[in-house]
Amino acid sequence: MHSSLRDLLITPAEMAAMDLAAARSGIDSFLLMRSAGLAVAAAALRRFPQAQRYAVLCGPGNNGGDGYVAASALVESGANVAVFAFGDPAALSGDAARARQLWNGTIDPLASFLPQPADAIVDALFGAGLSRDLPEPVVETIDRINGRDLPIIAVDLPTGVDGRTGQICGAAFAASHTVTFMAKKPGHLLLPGRSLCGALDVFDIGIPARIVLAGGKGLRVNTPALWSDHAARLDASSHKFRRGHLVVFSGGPQATGAARLSAAAGLAAGAGLVTVASPTSALDINAGHLTAVMLKAIDDPPGLERWLEDSRLGAFVLGPGFGVGERARAFALALCDRALVLDADGITSFQQHRSQLFARLAAAPGRAVMTPHEGEFARLFPEIARDENRSKIEKAQSAAQISHATIVYKGADTVIASPDGKVAVNANAPPSLATAGSGDVLAGIIGAHLAQGMPAFEAAAAGVWRHGTAGAKAGPGLTAETLVASIPPLG
Where does (6S)-NADPHX bind (predicted)? Predict the structure, then answer.
C-alpha cells in the first residue's frame, strides 16, 4: 500500500466514486475485482491453512464478485471449495457476472449452507456499502454461523456492518479476519463494527494513489503523522516558561482529586509549569497533596480576570471536579480568549446555555477543545446526538462546526474533529482506559499541548494518542495514577 494512504479513511461512497474514476482513467475495473479476490484468497490460505473446506458465501453485487474470484483462486491452489449464493447468480451484471462465469464449480443456494466443523468461511455477501437491514435469509445464515468458533474471512467488511457508521444492520458476522482494499473505512474503526472485524489487512488493488487522495475528504486514523510537526522539541535554550504554563481549576474541598490528576498529567506530558487554581476553602487540602505542581487561590470571576493579566499563563483546563453551575460558566466564558480544555462539569454547566458558549467561542481568538463522553455530548448537542442517520464521525464534525471548538468525542473509538473540517479517529485505546480519572488525565495531557503552543486539533489528537499509548503501557490493571506515570514522550 502506498505510504500516503496508510492513515487514510474513506467512506463507502468515496470508494465507489474512486472505482468509477479509476475506470474512467482507463483502468479495467474487472482487473481491480480480480486483484481484490486474489487478495482474499491469499489471506484465507495464509491465515487458515488448516481448513478442510473453504465455504465462500457470495452476495448479489460486487462483493459477491470478489467472492467468486477468491473461490476460483482457492481451487487453483488445490483447496476444497464450496460456493453458496444469496439471490440468483444468473442475475448478476457487469464485473460480478464476469467473475461468476469464471467459477467452474456448482453454486448452491445460501439457505442450504450447513457449516462443517473444519470450515473456513469467506464472507462475500455484502460489503462496506450496506446501509439497510439485512434480508431475513442472510440473518438466518449469520445466526447459524456466529458462535460456532469457525474462522470467518470478511471481504471489505463483515456482512451486516455499515461501512460509514460502524452500526449493525440487523445482524452481522463476527469475523476473525477482514480484508479491505486501498484504505480503511470508518466502519473498521467505529464501534460496534470495529469489534466485529478481527484482524484487518488493507490491500492495494491497483487504484492509483492520486485518485484515492483526490477522492477522499480528509478523514484520517489518528497517528503521530497528524501532529508530529507541531510537537515541541527541547533544546539547550529551553526553560520552564518556554515549555508552557498550564492552569487546572480545582473544585471545592470535597472534589479536589480530579484537578490534581489533570495537573499531574499536564506536568508529565511536558508542560514546564502547572498550577492548580483552587478555591480558598480547598487550599489546605490541595497543598497537602502537591509538590512540583503550584497552587493559586482563585475564588471568583473578578479574581480570575485579574490573574489573566499574566500573559505567561498558557492554557487552562476547566471542568474536572469543578462543579456544575453559574460559577463554572462565568469562568469558562472568561477563558474563551485563551487556550482552553473544557471538560466534565465545564461542559455540563452549559447544557441550558449552549448558545452563550458557542457565540463566545465564535467571537474569541482562543484555542478551545471540548472533551465530552457520550452522555456529555448528548447534553450539549442533543439534536445531533439523537440523529441516528449520522455516524460518530459526522456527529463530531457537526458539533465542532456549531460550537467553534475542537471536539474530542470520547469512547473506545474516540473521534477528534475541528471546526475547519479536519477529523481523526483514534484506534490505539485499550479497554482498560475505562476507569475513574482516565478522562481527567486526558484533559491534562491536551492542556499541556495547548500550553506548549500546539494548535487545538493537533493538541487534541496528540493527547488522545498519548493517552491510548499510556493505557497500553500501564496494562490491564491501570489506575489513573499509573496512567500518568506511563505517558510516553511526545516526540
Answer: 62-66, 127-133, 156, 258, 321, 373, 440
